[in-house]
Design brief:
- It contains eleven helices and 18 strands.
- With 477 residues, it is of the alpha/beta class.
- The longest helix has 26 residues.
Length: 477
């Protein structure tokens, strides 16, 4: 009898220890769920971080974030431009399935599309978005709140976010006017103004939006320190002000770069990146001061590849590193971004992983972190096993993108193969280029002629991967 009792007791102890072990992954303090901070840069290139080879300026806080956690080197954005990329992030659906597939065309995130914020809110998280929402234009000013955000401060639409010294920002659907005065024509009109958004060149520049976002982010963390929270901190740097023909890359000052023998626009770009790096450092410092660093997961990446706008030359600092292409391309330089993840006590420091993943994988990953069910009809695959090193990592059959400008483009990655299809809506003869990313990560050699059967396979996948829901059509007839 005693032997049987001992076995039962031993079984109970083993069960408790296993359960407790799993709980240490999803609860590192008194909170039942870990806090999540997702920091998104705007148009930051693969080569703009010093830990990935940038020599002209340094990003010490981001370098430390990577050395303290995990650097995912085969992570891809939702699109090669802002709005569809952010929509893929929020909905877990790629550009062949969600409603925002372009920066243009008036398509916006629908209220019935389930977002990360809505899911986490139902799990007891306080949800905040600070910075650039930008999931379609034009937008209703309370759009973030309608899509699960408890607290919003920043730009709702994309065009507004080009100006880093805006006349106003939005807080929970209401305009908040700043101490920036727009330079107008003699008749009172603004030559660089999208009147619905208040975008333009400022004559008086006192309130720099990214610095306001820093302050708001720290206050949000402070307010929610006793409850699980999700902070989506979406900076609009180093995006250029395309409507400003003078400054391009807007900063309050050039700081340590003012005496560099560089064009002013490049000084501004470098300062934008180092300011962004400092912002990450501020968030990390606040989390540590409040004792939240052991129960907070911090993510960092960019929404697409590097830009060549506002007078900035992408090659000046080699912003795409060794990758081919930039913003508005479906080459790797346009859609691959480093993803840095720090989770103290869970992720082994200074680790790297080449798991193939993309923005639409973030939603199911966050569901797993929060203990939520997945929405129906998502394209994402959770990469929580890659983060924690526990469990078997499920792999994608393929990743898919589509993009309407530049003649109409599609791209697919399956295993080590990358196919890009050109000329989908410009009336020209369609063409598929094929690359072996394992042997040719820089996409220098088109091997489509040597692998015609693979090309045929990808042609079928291109048709299978997308739909024409919501009246969105990619192809010309």
């Amino acid at each position: 009898m005693r032997t049987k009792t001992n076995w039962i007791l031993a079984y109970i102890l083993v069960f408790i220890s296993l359960f407790a072990g799993s709980e240490t992954i999803l609860a590192k303090s008194n909170n039942s769920k870990p806090n999540i901070v997702f920091i998104l840069a705007d148009d930051l290139g693969w080569g703009d971080l010093s830990c990935l080879g940038q020599k002209n300026f340094q990003t010490p806080h981001l370098d430390k974030l990577a050395s303290d956690g995990l650097l995912m080197t085969n992570f891809h954005t939702g699109s090669t431009v802002c709005a569809p990329s952010r929509a893929a992030l929020m909905t877990g659906r790629h550009t062949g399935h969600n409603t925002v597939r372009s920066n243009k065309g008036g398509y916006v995130l629908r209220d019935d599309e389930i977002t990360i914020a809505e899911i986490l809110k139902k799990q007891g998280y306080a949800t905040g978005c600070i910075g650039k929402w930008g999931v379609g234009s034009p937008k209703d000013m309370n759009d973030p709140e309608r899509n699960g955000i408890d607290y919003f401060y920043g730009y709702v639409g994309m065009g507004h976010a080009h100006n880093l010294f805006p006349e106003f920002l939005y807080r929970n659907g209401e305009k908040v006017f700043l101490n920036n005065k727009l330079r107008l024509n003699e008749d009172g009109s603004n030559p660089w103004l999208d009147k619905s958004e208040g975008m333009g060149v400022s004559e008086i520049r006192n309130d720099y939006a990214p610095f306001l976002f820093d302050k708001e982010a720290l206050q949000f963390i402070e307010r929610n320190k006793n409850n699980p929270f999700f902070l989506y901190l979406a900076y609009n740097t180093p995006h250029a002000n395309n409507e400003d023909p003078v400054t391009g890359c807007e900063v309050p000052d050039y700081g340590e770069f003012k005496d560099k023998d560089w064009p002013d626009v490049e000084k501004g770009f470098a300062k934008m990146v180092t300011n962004l790096d400092n912002s990450v450092g501020m968030v990390e410092k606040k989390l540590k001061e409040l004792g939240l660093d052991e129960n907070t997961i911090v993510f960092f990446c960019s929404d697409n590849g590097p830009h060549q706008e506002g007078g900035h030359e992408m090659e000046y600092f080699n912003s795409n590193g060794d990758l081919l292409g930039m913003k508005r391309d479906l080459y790797e330089g346009g859609i691959r971004t480093p993803l840095i993840v720090k989770w103290k006590g869970v992720i082994k420091p200074n680790t790297k992983d080449h798991h193939l993943s993309a923005f639409w994988d973030v939603l199911p990953t966050f569901c797993d972190i929060a203990g939520a069910n997945y929405p129906k009809e998502i394209d994402g695959v959770s990469f929580l096993p890659t983060i924690t090193g526990k469990g078997k990592q499920k792999k994608h059959d393929f990743l898919y993108w589509e993009f309407y400008p530049r003649g109409g483009l599609q791209a697919l990655i399956q295993d080590n193969w990358k196919a890009i299809r050109f000329n989908l809506n410009n009336g020209k003869e369609r063409e598929i280029k094929l690359y072996n990313l394992k042997d040719d990560p820089e996409e220098k050699i088109d091997v489509s002629n040597e692998h015609r059967e693979l090309v045929k396979k990808f042609e079928l996948l291109f048709e299978k991967a997308r739909d024409d829901n919501y009246g969105i059509k990619l192809f010309t007839k």
